[in-house]
Amino acid sequence: GDEITRPKRQRSGAASRSRLRLLQRVVDLEPGDAGARLKLAACYTEAGDSAGAVQTLEQGVAVLSAPGLANQAGAALLELVEALCRLRDDYHDRNQAADLHLSLGGHRGATAALRHLRKSFRADPLDMTTTSLLVRAFDQLDQPVKGSAVLKETARLALKAKRMPEFQALVDVLLTREPHDQEVAELAATRERASRARASSRGRASAPGRASSRGRASSRGRASSPGRASSPGRAQLDTITDVDIPVSLDSLSGQHRIFDEPADDALSDAGHAEQVATLRDPSRPPPLPVDPDA
């Protein structure tokens, strides 16, 4: 009858809306059903409603990330976060996906994590969450030298950007990982000089009544003169942190081949999807190792 006589596009649109309503009811009844959410998000995408797709996936991520559930729903949560990564370019999504891949363990999870982290690192090389995940990934790949290389270069970037809390924290980690490394020793020495300069600057600023009112006025005049530092301690700190450090992501990648994926750990999307499916259904046999020469 009416269904047959309707134009094909109209019939298709009506079917899509009916399927969308059906899937929405399923999701309302089972908020943690990742499969239904993925299908619903696909329906929204086909209808041109990317905002609806993103909202559907975000709500699912929130449900499955609830305390006490995240560990049990790791694989399903990963599927939703991966879908979000395909819909939008957001480094928080990428970092969450990387964290979940690393939780899978082994070289496969670490290699998949690096695919997300290389994009996060390009977006913000001073993000400490990204740095931590990168080090964790390289350690999981049994490549701690690359992890330390990331920490060293990030520490230099933090120093150049005068982000001293991050710089100091990174040096602490490096001293634990590489206590006898010459580069780490130089970074630690720079940190000590910067700390002394900061202490000197604070001490001069807080010294009580060391000058007469005329002397203080003269001092204020000198401090406000163009091109003059406010105090010797401040000037010393600026000199320490303004060192010329030619750091860039390209030089970091080229010098240490940071993001090279080892050939014997090559990972196809299908292979990792099989691993995720195995985690969701423990009764399935484990995936076969990926042969890079196949």
Give the overall pLDDT as a whole number: 75
What class do helices, strands and sheet pairing give?
mainly alpha
Bulk shape: elongated
Instruction: Kindly report the oligomeric state of this protein.
Output: single chain
Using the CA coordinates, give the radius of gyration: 27 Å
Key phrases:
single chain, 294 residues, mainly alpha, disordered N terminus, disordered C terminus
List the helices and strands and how they pair.
Blueprint: H1 2-5, H2 8-29, H3 34-46, H4 50-64, H5 74-87, H6 91-103, H7 106-123, H8 128-140, H9 144-160, H10 164-177, H11 182-206, H12 213-224, H13 232-241, H14 249-256, H15 269-280
Helix pairs in contact: 2-3, 3-4, 3-5, 4-5, 5-6, 5-15, 6-7, 6-8, 7-8, 8-9, 9-10, 10-11, 11-13
Summarize the structure in words.
The protein has 294 residues and is mainly α. Helix content is 71%, strand content 0%. The chain contains 15 helices and no strands. The two termini are 54 Å apart. The N terminus and C terminus are likely disordered.
